[in-house]
Amino acid sequence: MSSVWGEYLKISLFGESHGPGIGVVINGLPAGLEIDRDYINRELARRAPGKSKLTTSRQEKDEFEILSGVFQERTTGAPLCFLIRNEDKRSRDYEELKDIMRPGHADYTARVKYSGFNDYRGGGAFSGRLTAPLVLAGAIAKKILSAKGITLGSHILGIADIREEPFDAVCLSSSTLLELNAREFPVLNEEKGLLMKEKIIRAREQQDSVGGVLETAVVGVEAGIGSPFFDSVESKIAHLLFSIPGVKGVEFGEGFALSRLKGSQANDAFYLQDGQVKTTTNRCGGILGGITNGMPLTFKTAFKPTPSIGRIQKTVNLATRQEVELQIKGRHDPCIVPRAVPAVEAAAALALLDLLLEKEKKA
Amino acid sequence: MSSVWGEYLKISLFGESHGPGIGVVINGLPAGLEIDRDYINRELARRAPGKSKLTTSRQEKDEFEILSGVFQERTTGAPLCFLIRNEDKRSRDYEELKDIMRPGHADYTARVKYSGFNDYRGGGAFSGRLTAPLVLAGAIAKKILSAKGITLGSHILGIADIREEPFDAVCLSSSTLLELNAREFPVLNEEKGLLMKEKIIRAREQQDSVGGVLETAVVGVEAGIGSPFFDSVESKIAHLLFSIPGVKGVEFGEGFALSRLKGSQANDAFYLQDGQVKTTTNRCGGILGGITNGMPLTFKTAFKPTPSIGRIQKTVNLATRQEVELQIKGRHDPCIVPRAVPAVEAAAALALLDLLLEKEKKA
Amino acid sequence: MSSVWGEYLKISLFGESHGPGIGVVINGLPAGLEIDRDYINRELARRAPGKSKLTTSRQEKDEFEILSGVFQERTTGAPLCFLIRNEDKRSRDYEELKDIMRPGHADYTARVKYSGFNDYRGGGAFSGRLTAPLVLAGAIAKKILSAKGITLGSHILGIADIREEPFDAVCLSSSTLLELNAREFPVLNEEKGLLMKEKIIRAREQQDSVGGVLETAVVGVEAGIGSPFFDSVESKIAHLLFSIPGVKGVEFGEGFALSRLKGSQANDAFYLQDGQVKTTTNRCGGILGGITNGMPLTFKTAFKPTPSIGRIQKTVNLATRQEVELQIKGRHDPCIVPRAVPAVEAAAALALLDLLLEKEKKA
Amino acid sequence: MSSVWGEYLKISLFGESHGPGIGVVINGLPAGLEIDRDYINRELARRAPGKSKLTTSRQEKDEFEILSGVFQERTTGAPLCFLIRNEDKRSRDYEELKDIMRPGHADYTARVKYSGFNDYRGGGAFSGRLTAPLVLAGAIAKKILSAKGITLGSHILGIADIREEPFDAVCLSSSTLLELNAREFPVLNEEKGLLMKEKIIRAREQQDSVGGVLETAVVGVEAGIGSPFFDSVESKIAHLLFSIPGVKGVEFGEGFALSRLKGSQANDAFYLQDGQVKTTTNRCGGILGGITNGMPLTFKTAFKPTPSIGRIQKTVNLATRQEVELQIKGRHDPCIVPRAVPAVEAAAALALLDLLLEKEKKA
After folding, report:
1. Inter-CA distances, C221 with A82, A272, C178, D304, Å
2. Using an 8 Å Cβ cutoff, are D173 and D181 in contact?
3. CB D260 within 8 A of CB C161
4. Band of the pLDDT at D1, cuts 50, 70, 90?
5. How far is B239 from chain C (nearest CA, A)?
6. Which residues pair with C213 in a beta bridge?
7. How far lies C169's CA from each of A296, C213, C236, D112, in Å?
8. Which of B1, B33, B64, B120 to mutate to test the interface with D (most CBs of D within 10 A)?
9. Three-state DSSP class for residue B70
10. Which pTM does this prediction carry?
C-alpha cells in the first residue's frame, strides 16, 4: 500500500478510523506561506458530520494540530504534518462485525489483502474519515491556488434520480463558486435541492442510503498547465478522485455525453476576445491534450450510495464460513455526497497545484 | 512533462508523430519471460489503421524493434526498449496548420505550454500514435497476466447514440473475452454492431466524426489486488486511461448509474460458492475499497469524437492573431473507438500488473 | 524539499528540532509484523544523548507514539506513523543566533533556500534530531531483516586521528555484530577505544569537537539483491547515508584504498565452499555490479566534527550585514559519531529492505 | 531493476553491451533548448576508447541518434530519446565465458539476480558502455547549467599510488575547469600526470589494471540548491556516482580527512566579500545541511581497478560447478579512470540540474 502521492507536491496520508489519529505530511510547499487556521477549520467543517438530518449524528470534532513545517504561522519549507486525534470512537460496535463482511465495504478485500491483520474497526484505513487529512492538505492547496487567482467550487448535480442543470462552463465566475463554497448543501437550483434533500431524508427513514453526483469547476487556471499522457490534467485529478471512498465514475467536461456527439458538435471553436484565445463552447471541460486551455475546468464525480445501511443484508461470516444476515447498527450517513464536496475539491486542488509547480519550474 | 509511469513496473514513453520514431522503455519486468513476437504484432495490428472504411486510410506499418532487455527471445531483467520507426509521414500537410489551432486538438495548449517549440506536425507528442508503444508495453503485460490466468477483453458498448447491453458482470468467461480480442469490431450484439458501423460510415461521408464508449472486463483476478487511496485499482487504471488521447470519462462497475441507486440496491451481497466468497450481483465492478474482490473487474471508457474532421470549422490563426476558417485535409479516423480497444486494454493490463507486483512482493 | 524516500518501502520524514514533534510515516510494510516496543526503544536509546561525558548533557526522552498502522501490536498493512514529541527545548538559546550564521551549520544555506522562513531554532529541519524518526523506521526494518537472517552491526573505526583495524570482511559472524549493537561505544579493540574516548573528552574540555568514521557490516544477505545503475546497493545505501547530518564520505568494501591497487590485487577470487560460491577476499564489500554477492556487505561512513563548538568563531550577522565573533552556548556533543551508529544502521537497513522487497516481488 | 532516476528531471536508461543499442530517455527538459551536436559529440568523445595506449583498442564509434524530443534542432518539451547503436561487438569472446564468473565483475551477481537470463555478453546491462547514454544526458544537463553560469570540471587526482594536489576549493575559476574539460588526461600537475600514465602503461604491459580517484569541482552554483535529508546535494550526486560501474567511494569536500579534524579546524568561517557571504576555507565542499553555500562544490570519486585483466585468475564454472582458472582475452582498459571523467561529470550535472529545477519551481 502506498498512501504517498504527487511529484512536485508530495502528500503522505496516514491513519485508521479507530486508531490514535489520522493525518497527512505535505512535502514541496513553498516557504513563507501564511497559515490561515480559520480557513482550514472552515474547510474541515464542510466535511464534518452531525450538522443536520442529512448526515450521521456521529460527532467528529476534528481538531487539527500542526506538528511541523510551520513557524510563526508561516510555512518553513520543511514537511508540514497535520494530525487529527480520533475521538468519539465506538469501537465495540465493530467487534461483532469482525468476521462478518459488510456488503459494499472493504471488509472482505482488506481481509484478503492484509491477511486479516487490517484494523477492521470503522473501516480502518479504508474509512471515509481519511478524507479529513485530504481536506487539510486541500485547504493549503486551495489557499495557494487562490493567491494565483484560481477558485474551485462545486454543486450537487444530483442525488438519487434527481438532477439539476450543470454549470454553464463558458460563463462561470469565481463569485458563484465561492458562494457555493459557503453552503452546506450547495445547489444551483433550490427547488431541485429540496427534492434532493427529501431523497436523503427518506433514505434515512428507510434505513437505506442514496448516491449522487458532484460537479466541480475551477476558474482562473491559465492555459498551459498539464501534459500529454501520464501527467494529463485528467489523469492527475482522476487519480486522486478515485482514491476517495465511494467514487465510481469521473468525467471531464461533458464526458460520457461527448461520446454521443459528432466531432462537428463536440469540438469547441476557438475565437479571440480582447486578443485572448477563448472557445465559444466548453464541452471539453477546459482541457485539450491533457493541458488546460484557459477556459473553466469542469468535471463530475459519481458516488455510490453509502454502503452502511440499517436494512438487513445477506453476507458471509468468514470465521464460521457461513452465510448470514447482517443488520448494521451505529450512526451512518444516509448520503455521503454533501460531505464529500471538500474532499473532491481537495483532490482537484492538490492535482492542479502539483501540475502548476511543474509548470512554474520551467518559467 | 513526465511520460514516466508506474511504481513496481515503470514505463517511459517517448516519440512524436512525425519525428524519427516512437517507443517505450519498460522497467521491472521479470527475467526469463518469453517474447511472443506474433502476439505482440497481433496486438499492434488491432490498433493499426487502414484496414477498412471504418478507419483512416493512412498506413502505419508499425514494425517494432526491441533495442534492449531481450536475449535469446527471453527478457533479461534489464529495461526492455521497444522502438517503432515513423513512416508514411506527410509532414507537409501540417506545415500550413502551424499557426492555425485545430479545434478539439492540443495545438493551442501545447503551443502555450511549450512556448511554441512543440513539434506541431501530426499532433507531435500528443498524437494518438503514441498509443502504439503503450500497446507494445500492454502486450507484454497482458502476456504476463495471461500466465496468471487473467484475461482482458472489451466490446464497443456504443458509438454515437447507439448502445448495446453491457457485459454480464457476474457470469463472464475468459473465452468470451478472448473471442472479442480476435475481432476487429468487437460487439456483443451484431445488429447493434451494424448500426454502430453505419454511424461511423455516415460520419465519414459527412466529413465528420463520432465518439463512443468501450466496456472492458478482466476475469481471473484474485481478490486482494490494490490498496485504499492512492493505489486503488480505480485510481491506477483511471490514471492510465485518462492519458489516452480522446478519453473524457471513466467509470467502474455501474459507475454513474450507481449514483442513482439506493444502498440496498447498490450493495453486492456476499455468498459462498464452494467455500469461495462471491457476490450475487457485481455493480461495484469487482472493486471494493480500491481492492479487487475476485469478481470480474469491469469499467467503461468514454471517447469524444475524433477532433480531426473535414468540415469547415472556426478557429484562430495565432501568427496573424485573426479568426479564420479551417478545413482539415489529410486522412483521419471517423471514429477512434475501434482502434482504441488495445490501448484501453494495455492501460488496464499495465495498471493491474503494477498492482500485482506490489501484492506479490508481500507474499 | 522532499523528505520522502524509497520505492517499495516509502518513508516520509517530518519535524523540526524545536517544533511540536518529529516523526516518520512508513509505507509498504507487510501486514502482521509484530511490533517489539522494547527493541524499538533500545534502538532509540542507542542514539539518545545524556548518557555519559562523551555526549551532550541535553536530555531527549524520545518517547515514541504509534499513530497508525498497528493494531493489537501487529502491523495492519496501512501506513505506520511514529511520533516523538519534542521536549526539553531551550528555544531562547537560539533567539540571539537568529541572524548569526553558525559556521559548519545549515543556518546560512537554509536561510537562503527558504527565504528566511525556516525554523532556525536548534537547526530546525536540519537538526540531527531528525535522525530519531529515521532510527524508528530503521528499527522496524532491522527487525524484518533479522527475521530473514540478516544482521547489521557497526564499530567506531576511528575518532580524530585514532584508527582501529577494520572488520575482517571474510569471516564475520552475526554474533560479533549483535554484541557490538549492545554497546554504547562499540569498538573491536578496547585499547584503541580508550584512546578514542580520550580524544572526545579532551575535545569537550577544549570546547571543541572531533569527527570520526564508522564501519558497518551486514551479514546474512543472500546474493542477488540490488541492480545495476540507479538501484545499485551502493547508490541506495549512500543516498540515505549522505542524508544523515554530518556525513561527508562513504565507501564500500575497501573503497578509496581500492583505487591504489592493481586489478590482480583488487579482484576477489571466487571459489566453492560446500557448493556455495564464495570469494577468498572481500575487498568489494560484498557488492558486484550493484548487486550483493552473498559475502558480508561492508561500508564506511565519515563524519565531520560536530560544528557546534564553544570556541570563539568568526562569522557574519546577516541582519546587520557585519562580520562578528560567535561563541555558541548550550549543550552540544563533542563528537556525534557514537550516537550516529543506529542512524547509519537504519539507513543501511532501510535501503536493503527496499531492495529486498524489489527482489521478492519477482519470486 | 529500475533504470529510472530523478524527480524534476527524469532519465530512463536502457541497453546492453552487445544488444542492438543503448540509450536514454530524458523527461523534464525545458522546451526551446538548442541542441549543440558538436558539444554532445565532444562529450561522447571524451569517454571514447581507442585513442591511446592508455585505453582499450576497442573502437566504439558511438554515433548517437535523437529519436524524439527535438524539432528544428531545439527541444520540444517532449521526452528526448538518445539512441546509440552497438557496433564492433565481438560477442564470441564471451560465449566461452558464459558459465565462468569473471572476478570483480557482475557475472555471478547478475546470474543470481536474473536467474541466468541476463545477457552475459560484455557485461550486458552492467557494462561500462551504459555510461555512454549517461554522458549524452549529462551533455544536455551541462549545457543547461552552463547557460546559468555553472561550470563542471575534473582532474585525475590519482592513479594507483600516485597522488597530485587537490583543487584549491576556495579559488577556483571556470576557465581552469574548462581547460581541464578539453584534455584527454586532465591533471593539475603534469609531472604527476606522467607518473600516472606510466602506471597505466605498466599495468597494461603486465596484463593487469589500476584504479584511481577523480576530483570534480562545480563553480557558479548559487547558494540555496538542495535540501536536508533525502534530497541533499550529497545524496543526489552520490546516488548517481555510485551507479557508475567501478565506483567504490565518494566524498564531498575534504570527506574522510574531515573525520580526523577538530571542529575548530573543520568549520569554514563565514565572512563578507562585497556584501556576499563567503567562507575563508572550503573544507565542506560547498555544501552545508545538504544545500549549496555558493562556494565551489567539490567531491572525489574512487574507482577500483578495471576487473578485466589478462592475468590468470581463480574462479568457478557454474555449469560444471568446478573451480577453474580463467584468462580473460579481448581488449580491455588498463585503467577506466580517464574515460570515466565525463560520466562522473554527467552524474553531477544531472543531480544538480534536478535540484535546480526543484529550486526554480519555488521562485
Report:
1. 38, 66, 15, 23
2. no
3. yes
4. low
5. 19
6. C158, C302
7. 64, 17, 21, 21
8. B1
9. strand
10. 0.97
Distance between CA atoms of residues B30 and A27, nearest Å: 33
Where residue B294 falls (left for φ over 0; alpha for ψ -120 to 50; beta otherwise) is left
Asked whether the CA dihedral B46, B304, B58, A291 is positive or negative, the reply is: negative
Task: Provide the shortest C-alpha distance from residue C167 to chain A (in Å).
Answer: 38
Q: Measure the CA–CA gap between A12 and C13, rounded to whole angstroms.
A: 10
Residue-by-residue DSSP string for C118-168: S--GGGGGGSGGGHHHHHHHHHHHHHHHHHTT-EEEEEEEEETTEE-PPP-
The grid cell for D298 is 567539490
- Whether residue D31 and residue B117 make contact (CB cut-off 8 A), yes or no, is yes
Contacts of B297 in chain A (CB under 8 A): none
- Which run of H or of E encompasses D92? helix D92-95
Q: Which one, of B314, B308, B318, B316, lies nearest residue B111 by Cα? A: B318
Q: How many helices (H) and strands (E) does chain B have?
A: 10, 18
What would the pLDDT profile of C254-267 be if each residue is shown by its tens digit? 999 999 999 999 99
Residue linked to cell 574515460: D339
d(CA A318, CA D361): 52
Q: Output the pLDDT for position B362.
A: 47
pLDDT at B59: 64
Whole-number Å distance between alpha carbons of B296 and B217: 7
d(CA B201, CA B205): 6
Closest CA to D291 of B247, A235, C115, B251: C115
Judging contacts by C-beta atoms under 8 Å, the chain A residues touching residue D362 are 30-31
Q: How distant, in Å, are the alpha carbons of C107, D109, D356 from that of D222?
A: 16, 41, 10
Residues of D in contact with B10 (CB under 8 A): 2, 4, 12
Distances (CA, A) of B211 to A31, B103, B156, C144: 46, 15, 11, 52
Q: CA torsion sign, A270 to A275 to A276 to A282? A: negative
pLDDT in tens, C132-150: 999 999 999 999 999 999 9
Burial class, D53, CB count within 10 angstroms (exposed 0-12 / middle 13-18 / buried 19+):
exposed
Within chain A, residue ranges assigned H as helices are: 37-47, 92-95, 107-113, 131-147, 174-181, 190-205, 233-241, 255-258, 263-266, 337-362
Nearest alpha carbon to residue D70 among B5, B13, B86, B125: B125
Q: Are B56 and B163 in contact (CB under 8 A)?
A: no
The complex scores an ipTM of 0.96
CA distance B37 to B80: 14
Q: What is the CA radius of gyration of chain C?
A: 21
* C276 CB neighbour count, 10 Å cutoff: 9
pLDDT digits (tens, 9 = 90+) for B246-290: 999 999 999 999 999 999 999 999 999 999 999 999 999 999 999
Which amino acid does the sequence have at B132?
A
Joined together, the cell numbers standing for residue D208 give 593487469
* pLDDT band, very low/low/confident/very high, at A363 (cuts 50, 70, 90): very low
Single-letter amino acid code for the residue at D5:
W
Q: Is C116 exposed, middle or buried (0-12, 13-18, 19+ CB in 10 A)?
A: middle
| Cα–Cα distance for residue pair B235/A307, rounded to 1 Å | 20
- Three cell numbers written together for B171: 457470469
* Interchain proximity C277–D7, CB inside 8 Å: no
Instruction: State which residue of chain D sits closest to A356, comparing Cα positions.
Output: D361
Among B247, B153, B155, B152, CA closest to B192: B155
Give, in order, the Cα–Cα distances in Å from A316 to each of A101, B295, D301.
6, 16, 62
The candidate with the shortest Cα–Cα distance to D56, out of D339, D345, D245, D362, is D339
- Residue C62 — very low, low, confident or very high, per pLDDT cuts 50/70/90? confident
